[in-house]
Amino acid sequence: MILLRSLLFFLLSIVNTIFWGIVTVPASFIHFRTGYDCARLWGVCELWMARHLCGIEYAISGRENIPSHACISMAKHQSAWETIFILCHIPRAVWIIKKELVWLPIIGWVLAGLKSIAIDRKSGKAAIEQIIEQGRDRLAQGLWISLFPEGTRVAPGKRGRYGIGGAVLAARTGAPILPIAHNAGEVWPRYSFLKYPGKVSVSIGPVIATQGREPQAIIADVEAWIEGEMARMPPARGA
């Protein structure tokens, strides 16, 4: 049944992505907010299908910690699920992504239309300067910045290296950081076709102040909070 449900989700997800992609790509280049709302509707459909076809539910704690002003969200990265969740539950944001993603059909075009900051992670200091320059511009427009500080998906129970780029942007702009922990990788494993029933725990922390602080101290606080929450979460699969 898990295989059949995962297959049905996969097929319907293709249809959902093509439909909303056809709408979102032109809309995002014409009017950012309209394009973003279309992308969010795609995400709502994905979460609905994940719940009703694959049995993936979720519970959120700390929703009251989401501020009304522009912020930088930093989340644990275990699967594709959290990307969809953040799209649907965090205020309008642009993503810091690796530049290769913008060439993906439909998804990449949408990311480009929605003002994502596409960086070459191998370019080191140049990438950080790009994050600062474009991130400051996006924040000035009242947009959030969303990123995964580990850079790539990590398996449940593992910890990736927390990159400094987002913390440098926060230190330069004074924008607070909203940390997000979750265990979606237990039911929606990275790079896996199969989706398993369970309940994802999502914990949204109090914002981390950045004004007048060094990037190394900022990212250390982010990592400590996220990994501390990860250690306290109940198992997702079969919950």
Radius of gyration: 17 Å
Strand numbers in spatial order across the main sheet = 1-7-6-2-5-3-4
Order of helices and strands: HHEEHEHEHEHEEH
Can you give the helix content as a percent range?
A: 40-55%
By CATH reckoning, the class would read Alpha Beta
Structural class: alpha/beta
Query: What share of residues are in beta strands?
Result: 15-25%
User: Which parts are unreliable, with pLDDT below 50 for 5 consecutive residues or more?
Assistant: none
In words, what does this structure look like?
This protein has 239 residues and is an alpha/beta fold. The chain has one domain (56-232): Glycerol-3-phosphate (1)-acyltransferase (3-Layer(aba) Sandwich). The chain has 7 helices and 7 strands. Strands 1-7-6-2-5-3-4 form a 7-stranded mixed beta sheet, with helices on both faces. β3 (93-98), α4 and β4 form a beta-alpha-beta unit. α6 crosses α7. It starts with a helix and ends in a 7-residue tail after the last helix. The mean pLDDT is 93.
